[in-house]
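Case study B.
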Amino acid sequence: MTSPLPAAEALARRHRLRWWEALPWAAAMAAYFVFPTYLAFGTQVLVTVLFVLSLDLVLGYAGIVTLGHAAFFGAGAYTVGLLAQHAGWNEPLSGLAAAAVVAGLLGLASGFVVLRTQGLTLLMLTLCTMALLEESANMGAAWTGGFDGLPDLQFKPLLGLFRFEQLSYRPQYFYALAVLFACFVLVRTLVHSPFGQSLTGIRENLLRMHAVGAPVHRRLVTAYAISAALAGVAGGLFTQCNAYVNLAVLGLDRAAGALIILILGGYGRLYGAFVGAVAYMVLEHVLARAYPTAWQLGIGLLLMAVALYARNGILGLAASLARRASGSRRA
Amino acid sequence: MDLANVLGILLGGLASGMVLFIVSVGLSITMGLMGFVNLAHGGFAMLGGYVVALSMRSLGVPFVPALAIAFVAVAALSVVLERLFYARLYRAGELDQVLFTIGLIFVMISAVTLAVGPEAQTLRLPEWLRGQTDLGFMRYRSYSLALIAAGSALVVVLWLGFERTRIGAQIRAAVDNRRMAESIGVNVARLFTLTFALGSGLAAVGGGLGAEILGLDPQYPLRYLVYFLIVVSVGGLGRVTGVFFAALLIGVLDFVLKIRFPQGGTLFIYALTLGLLLWRPQGLFGKRA
Amino acid sequence: MIRRIGVLALALAAAALAAFATGASAQTVKVGVVLPYSGIGAEFAQQVDRGMKIFMQLHPGAFGSYKIELVKRDSKNPSGAPAKTAVQELITQDKVDILTGFIFSPDAIASAPLVTEANKPMIIMNAGTAWITDLSPDIARVSFSMWHAGFAMGQTAAKMLHAKTAVVGYTDYPPGKDSLEAFKHGFEANGGKVIDAIPMGSPAKVPDFTPFFQRVKDEKPDVFFVFVPAGDHAVAVAKTYAALGMKQAGIKLIGPGDITQDTELQKMGDDAVGLITVHHYNADLDNPANKRFVAAWKKEYGADSTPDFMAVQGYDGMAAIAHVVTSLKGKIDGTSAMKALEGWKFDSPQGPIMIDPATRDIVMNEYVSELEKKDGRMVQKNIGVIKAVKDMCKELKVGRCK
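Model:
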């Protein structure tokens, strides 16, 4: 006998945890023990995963293609940096909260304005917003330090107990992992909720969503603002863990890099950020150590190959392979 | 400020606008016609510039023939790339296209760095382009005047080509409505290849012609990507006249603002683009969606 | 019989001691080299890298019995984070004894806390923001601070060129602003006045300088001091200066040697004749060490190739490392390395250099040169020299400098 509410059942089922969802976290914990001298690199990876996760929310789920997401990363990064340098406010957790608020408000304001457009226009508007922010930060170099950035930032110990260690990065790694986990739980809940479903609806078929009376613009702006806040947290984390921030946090390099990583990993699949960031950054790290002058060639070829042969990134490839495997078993 | 000064500023802005136009027109057409996000477009411009620089230096070819060689060489390369790779991605989502073209840029940058070196290249302009020309009422930099002449000639040729020839009509038809064009017998695939080759060849010429202003080094494609995208989006996809006027507008305004408010930096261009696109999302000359 | 055994035992002991001694002194010293081998700084990294190599070629015995192992890492983009990660791994994984390289200031700035905590010496081969050496007691610099050339140029403009008014054009980022400040201090301390300061675009791309230069032409100063980053910016500056006929209008173009980088000189053509620059090095300097340096360079990298100030910084950096290694007998840590470098003097291709004991920054000559054309080539003609120039930012304690 079928359930009286099959759709609701299906929706509820999505929330349930699957066994393999523990894998990324187990791997991250294991990495701490297996690669104790790589924790600085590991922290950069975790920060990037969080940033790319926030991008997945707007791009993978809401379908907003943006090249300017680093605006929010940078807003968060500079909030933490400026507060620490000029206002003496260097408590880590409240700093992150401030970063989230500033970046979220920025996302709300800019999203409200630009999300009325689509396609190339939207892309360019997000790009211009980010570039404007970068230029302003440069012009305000007396405050922001400009290209040279804010040196020697000091932060209070985390929870009053764990002082950030410059050389080993041990507390920073765990800190980043914990923040990532908390944000991930938030994102996962969001995308499986009715709100998240409506975002997917907007992405898949805009006209129909309008037709069923969904408040499209409001949903998009909300998603954008939440994503911006998360990106801001990632940025704040960057500044705190590295004790340094400069203009590059607002640059096209960072925004485009996040986009590439997300597409590589597979967008709209929640774990694409993890897979993409680890794959891209580890490969880049290894290649750059072996061939400091020529590694870009290898990365470029990889990206081209994935685009041509693995639609929807690594996770997409894995999914289609899994389907083929189970399909051939059935046949 | 006297007339000569105002005119000087105007001509300077027009000249840099022309370079932007020559390089970006190909991007506008491919994005408008093929709906393909080719972020590697700047890479073709860079390759063209390198072909010009190297053939002038190593083979002693004069400037203008070198430009022609660059056009042919890069157009040929683009045909190969299009048939082998781009064609597979026409049906793919725009994000896969972005991934592919950025990968291609990385490959182009590192290939050039490994083959030639990371240093910037310079072109020695021919004698008749150096120095100043006497226009009667004023003297102005010959090179800038040549750029203005080249750009104007190009837009006229392209406009005539699109408006007055059969192929041009087919291209316009395919841009406006690909399915209909296919259904009346237009070979859209061949059209794609042709326009892609043309656009990339023009970018190559732009890269060589504009090297004096924009420079020439392996980082060129990434550095100017945003400017090309701005010109294309402000002009409106697939519109030659749109790109022309957008490029001139950006060129002149950028120039004027730098003289009056150098502290503003590139801020104004981004603010301007933001404002223009919010006012007219389809670009100055684009079709309303 | 006993005597024979005794002699044999002594011989064996001596041999054992000798073997032990050579075994102990065939030690390896690891040097971590952090340079932007890829991306926008790649050509600078190449010059520094080559300069290091030429030093090791010309001075094979400089390191005593110690073997130098260079561990090279790409600092990628100038955001500071990749450099910091590279330094962290060099210290904790590769266990390097010395860190060097650092083209971009953010890379050095971000990494400073690491070397302090690890007590490892950092020998900077480029990064020119003045207060970098204040960030850690373990940093020494053999390259320059923007103030070395900027202040000296200001002095020269007022005293040698008798200029009363100047306009400064600078690329809008910290080295440009530093250069402006430095020039202003030097110029106005000697009776001049800076009437306008024009930011000219970002270092990331070469702008069309025409509008900026047009504005200067209208203002008619005695001298136009320009700072742009080394590379194609400099060539564009020379071309625009000529294209606008500014020389004929009586405006002298001056600047630090970044705008006449030796690798770009020949590309500037006749446009640049008459340009006056102040810098710690140019390839035409006439001293025995430089003659050897340039000859070895051309032999290794081709007759058309030329060293420049970045290359000599790599060379000097290796010399400093050699001094540290041999004077500390391979037992290297930050504090003792800095002690060893205090007051260290060296006959570099750029002339006599010294590390200032008070600031750990470099003290060197600044050469005033005029660009001229000789036998179809552009050469730097030496028209003056200011000896033993210190970093005036730290001397005068301006801004962040302590």
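The domain at 20-330 of chain A is CATH 1.10.3470 (ABC transporter involved in vitamin B12 uptake, BtuC). The remaining cases will be described in the next quarterly update.
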